[in-house]
């Protein structure tokens, strides 16, 4: 069986000490580092771009899991790949030619991921699933960290797990939004094997390492 992946999202990190916080997450056993890119159009918030990805690339050896919440992601794929993204995840809602976009990401040497908003049905991934290295199910409305997990997304996780299994796909099934020690078991049981967490890691009262440990503790070995 593949190991479970914990991917801390730097959206809740202290940006005055980003390098230190990334190093702390890495030494505490984070598997990937999740970078939330927002453009103020596809989602209301505005965050970081290739420049920050490039800084993260110098701060860690961990794979950089770059989640693009932006319109016209095709215009920036090369810039993110050059900046050092390991995985590039695009929203199916922003890609009129999702198969072509996933192929472009792969041709740039990155793992190709697809994601979908809570309101988007799993069936919209039909053309993407055979090509995706990774599928990310949003379990909050994208835009901000610290929101509450949407339990109604559990059936979508289970449905996508069934569809991936039917395709004999080895893609990661990742979840993002409201993941904590209290919610991670339910999404794992529904079929997820990679878990993004911002506040549960970077805002844990006992620190980043304790945040990662609290998630790992409730996953089977
Ligand atoms: C939400 C982002 C998430 C966010 C998760 O728009 O895609 O990655 O940082 O934050 P938490 O884990 O606090 O819900
Ligand atoms: Zn994200």
Architecture blueprint of SSEs:
Blueprint: E1 5-8, H1 18-27, E2 33-38, H2 50-59, E3 64-69, H3 77-83, E4 87-91, H4 98-107, E5 111-116, E6 134-138, H5 154-166, E7 172-176, H6 184-190, E8 194-197, H7 199-202, H8 208-217
The protein binds D-xylitol-5-phosphate and zinc ion.
What would you note in describing this structure?
The chain is of the alpha/beta class and about 220 residues long. Helices cover about 30% and strands about 20% of the residues. The chain has helices spanning about 20-25, 50-60, 75-85, 100-105, 155-165, 185-190, 200, 210-215; strands at about 5-10, 35-40, 65-70, 85-90, 110-115, 135-140, 170-175, 195. An 8-stranded parallel sheet has the order 1-8-7-6-5-4-3-2. Helix 3 (about 75-85) links the parallel strand 3 and strand 4 (about 85-90). Helix 2 (about 50-60) runs parallel beside helix 3. It is globular and about 45 Å long. The N and C termini lie close together (about 10 Å). The model has no long low-confidence stretch (mean pLDDT about 100).
């Amino acid at each position: 069986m593949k190991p479970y992946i914990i991917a801390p999202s730097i959206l809740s990190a202290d940006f005055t000490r980003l390098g230190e916080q990334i190093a702390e997450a890495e030494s505490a056993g984070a598997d990937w580092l999740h970078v939330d890119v927002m453009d103020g159009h596809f989602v209301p918030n505005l965050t970081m771009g290739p420049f920050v990805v490039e800084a993260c690339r110098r701060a860690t050896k961990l794979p950089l899991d770059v989640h693009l919440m932006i319109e016209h992601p095709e215009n920036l794929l090369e810039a993110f790949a050059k900046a050092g993204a390991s995985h590039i995840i695009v929203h199916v809602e922003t890609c009129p030619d999702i198969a072509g976009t996933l192929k472009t990401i792969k041709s740039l040497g990155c793992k190709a991921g697809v994601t979908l908003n809570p309101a988007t049905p799993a069936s919209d991934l039909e053309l993407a699933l055979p090509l995706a290295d990774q599928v990310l199910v949003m379990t909050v409305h994208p835009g901000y960290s610290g929101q509450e997990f949407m339990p109604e997304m559990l059936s979508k996780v289970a449905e996508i797990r069934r569809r991936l299994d039917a395709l004999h796909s080895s893609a990661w099934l990742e979840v993002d939004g409201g993941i904590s020690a209290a919610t991670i078991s339910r999404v794992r049981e529904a079929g997820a094997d990679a878990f993004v967490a911002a506040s549960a890691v970077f805002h844990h009262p006992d620190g980043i390492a304790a945040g990662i440990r609290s998630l790992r503790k409730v996953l089977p070995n």
